[in-house]
Structure formats: C-alpha cells, structure tokens
Specification:
Elements: E1 3-7, E2 10-12, E3 18-25, E4 33-39, E5 46-52, E6 58-60, E7 68-73, E8 78-83, E9 92-99, E10 114-115, E11 119-123
C-alpha cells in the first residue's frame, strides 16, 4: 500500500520561490530513496533531485543545481524540494517517485518503483 502525494505547486513569477512536498506512506522510514522528477508537455521525464534515507546520498540535475534544495522530515514522512530563482524552463508537472529496494541509493539513479500523481509548477510573468 505504498502511496506518494505531491503538493505545493502553483503559478509563480520568474525569480520566485516555491516549496514542493512529497508525503509518503507504506514503506520504511529507514530503507528508501525518494526522487523528484518533472515532465513538460512533449518532453521526456527528467530526474531533478533525489535524497536517500538508506545511505544519505543526494543528487541534483545540472539544470537545477545551486537553485533547488532537497530535504526530508522523517517524523512527517515527507520529502521537500525548495526551489529558488525559478525560471520559465522549470515549468512542468513535478512528480515524486520512490525506490524501495534494499540498499537503495541516489547513486542507483532509479526511484521509479512508485509514483505520485504530480503537482503542476508554472513559472510565468
């Protein structure tokens, strides 16, 4: 009964900030890895960021490095993606996905065992 639910999307102006949340249930607080992905219309789904409870590893795509920060609150079963200096190119549906395999890590590059439904981020003036 794994479930992931994204929230926090919306419309922001270029240069603005937004915090996305991914709240999960149905898997261990210790042995899992959660990734953020995004997909714009007609584009391939892109891996944006990752954080692993299993080994503490993190990942950021070059396109968001130094602008986005991923974090977690284990007590709330939630992973956050804090996005700063947003640009129109960041416009997409943002999804969180989970890798629940034993010994999972951001280094594996795969958090696709389960998906949330997505939350839309639109960056426009």
């Amino acid at each position: 009964q794994v479930q992931l639910v994204e929230s926090g999307g919306g419309l922001v102006e270029p240069g603005g900030s937004l915090r996305l949340s991914c709240t999960y249930s149905g898997f261990s607080l210790d042995d899992h890895t959660v990734g953020w992905y995004r997909q714009a219309p007609g584009k391939e789904r892109e891996r944006v960021s990752c954080i692993s409870r299993s080994d503490g590893s993190t990942y950021y795509a070059d396109s968001v490095k130094d602008r986005f920060t991923i974090s977690r609150d284990n007590a709330k079963n939630t992973v956050y993606l804090h996005m700063n200096n947003l640009k129109p190119k960041d416009t997409a549906v943002y999804y969180c996905g989970a890798d629940v395999s034993y010994g999972s890590s951001c280094h594996r590059g795969y958090e696709k065992d389960y998906w949330g439904k997505g939350t839309l981020v639109t960056v426009s003036s």
